[in-house]
Specification:
Helix content: 40-55%
Distance between the termini: 53 Å
Number of helices: 14
Order of helices and strands: HHEHHHEHEHEEHEHEEEHHHEEHEEEH
CATH class of the largest domain: Alpha Beta
Shape: globular
Structural class: alpha/beta
CATH architecture of the largest domain: 3-Layer(aba) Sandwich
């Protein structure tokens, strides 16, 4: 006999992430499911070079336990990198985390009690929703348009929730799953809406470096860098999309008080993030390997996104919409409201192709007339063939 599971465990939904990773790794499928960087694009040669150049002493350090807040040279390099993005880290703290997912989880752990509310965009990142729900928080979605979260709807939601609203979670830069990037005006409106409120803004930025056109780079300026607003911002980023998810490294920049609490919470999770990959990441930044590597990634992902977009234009029936990608990994497809993405998925799956259905990204787990297509880790030669299957599945579900 088992004792009862905890309340948080009983409240967990079936993990869509688990299914995504299984589908993404199935060699028999053309997968548009997982939000993974292109396997063929991972910087194996750079990693070999960086590791080979390490001293024996550095290699031994890499194999040892480290400080909970992170490997000091890496913390210094992340601080330098954030400074290049206009983020003033004076008076702020930094902690290296085991992926950005852990950073989100730590913020949720130190702020969210059962019955509290976490406001998110609709749609929103699956992993963040799972983290918030694991602490008994209610997730409340606010709709977006092409420029970001809709401010009047956000204000109504915040006023209705009152002090129950502890966090606002947003992914403003090539959003997962919606693919949009916030305009500068919308970011300032958002900061104005939060000014003076007792709520944490959790600004998640794993994709901001992956713009396709240099003209969009100014739009990746973070809200954390806009220091003339009275808003408490926790800013998180990740090496997953720009150095490799196997590194399991992210970071959190926030006030020292918040970082101190997050360190205590992290000590109960894993004590420290992998020192081995932290040493490599510090070398990656200090040796200025990132700029050139990112240029190659932008070219490759722009090409893949273009192929997928052209297929959508040529093959999708009327009544289906999507967001033209300007960066990141995803295209968010909106089906006619009568259509169920689960039915489309089943037909596509039978044809050997997979994606993620919309309800996985709904804070309420209900709305299912959308789907997310990830172009990032699908071989170029497979994208058109896979899109023929997806678009054919949509056509088969069109109401006559």
């Amino acid at each position: 006999m088992l004792p009862p599971f905890s309340q948080s465990a009983q409240g967990m939904r079936s993990s869509e992430i688990r299914r995504i990773m299984k589908l993404a790794g199935d060699p028999s499928l053309i997968s548009f499911a997982g939000g993974s960087p292109g396997t063929s694009l991972l910087p194996v040669d750079i990693v070999d070079e960086l590791y080979g150049a390490l001293s024996t002493r550095a290699k031994r350090t890499a194999l040892q336990y480290g400080a909970t807040d992170g490997y000091p040279p890496l913390i210094a390099e992340i601080g330098r990198y954030l400074g290049s993005k206009g983020i003033n880290t004076d008076g702020q703290g930094l902690i290296v985390t085991t992926g950005a997912q852990q950073a989100i989880n730590l913020v949720a752990k130190v702020f969210a009690d059962p019955g509290d509310a976490v406001v998110t965009e609709y749609p929103s990142f699956i992993g963040a929703l799972a983290a918030f729900k694991s602490y008994g928080a209610e997730t409340v979605g606010v709709p977006m348009d092409g420029n970001g979260i809709i401010i009047p709807d956000l204000l109504k939601t915040l006023d209705k929730l009152g002090k129950r609203a502890k966090l606002l979670y947003v992914t403003p830069y090539f959003h997962n799953p919606a693919g949009i990037i916030y305009g500068e005006r919308r970011k300032r409106e958002l900061l104005d809406a939060l000014s003076g409120r007792d709520i944490i803004l959790l600004e998640d930025d794993p994709y901001g470096e992956l713009y396709f056109d240099a003209a969009d780079k100014p739009l990746t300026a973070t809200m954390k860098s806009m220091s003339n607003h009275d808003v408490n911002i926790c800013y998180t980023g990740s090496f997953a999309k720009i150095f490799g998810p196997g590194m399991r490294l992210g970071w959190l920049c926030a006030t020292p008080e918040i970082i101190d609490k997050c360190q205590l919470a992290k000590q109960s999770m894993d004590a420290c993030s992998p020192t081995f990959t932290q040493v490599l990441a510090a070398e990656f930044l200090s040796k200025d390997k990132m700029p050139g590597y990112l240029e190659g990634l932008r070219v490759a992902y722009r090409r893949r996104a273009g192929i997928m977009t052209n297929s959508l234009k040529e093959l999708m029936p009327e009544g289906v919409g999507w967001t033209p990608p300007r960066g990141g990994f995803y295209i968010w497809v909106t089906l006619p409201p009568y259509m169920d993405a689960s039915e489309v998925f089943q037909k596509a799956f039978e044809g050997g192709t997979a994606f993620v259905i919309g309800s996985a990204f709904d804070p309420a787990g209900e709305k299912n007339d959308c789907l997310r297509l990830a172009f990032s880790n699908t071989p170029v030669e497979d994208i058109e063939r896979g899109m023929e299957v997806v678009c054919g599945a949509v056509k088969a579900c069109v109401r006559k």
